[in-house]
Amino acid sequence: xxxxxxxxxxxxxxLAQPGPGRFGPGEGMQPSADxxxxxxxxxxxxxxxxxxxxxxxxxxxxxxxxxxxxKERALRERLQAGSTDAPALGAALIEIxxxxxxxxxxxxxxxxxxxxxxxxxxxxxxxxxxxxxxxQDTIRQATMLNLLDPPAGPxxxxxxxxxxxxxxxxxxx
Length: 173
Hints:
The protein is an all-alpha fold.
């Protein structure tokens, strides 16, 4: 029993370790940004500025979400207590919806600030990346219909493994 517990705990500790490409050295819990850094040719100072904005956004969003949670709990408690004060309940709902809209305003503001860190050329390359991302569903469907090979990378082979492999078919792949 002690041996099984030791093996289980050891396996859990190994699984908790960051895998290749997930977290870079010295970045703590920040995911690696090597691919986007290379694609956009980001400088270290740009990457630092983007990560700072990301942290600031996360903090601002968390504050707003906590406020929404507090307002929703108060509304739920009023309703569970049997409140029939329609104007007060309606005002609480409007207040919650206003806070939700503020979340989108926060997102938009931080996105604009993040884009402001990039040069015109980098924004152009980012647009290309955005256009490609819009095709993800189409690519997934084409892969399901065996029109495209599955992407390389994590799959049954694990991180960095072979991924799903296509069987040879009539189209010479």
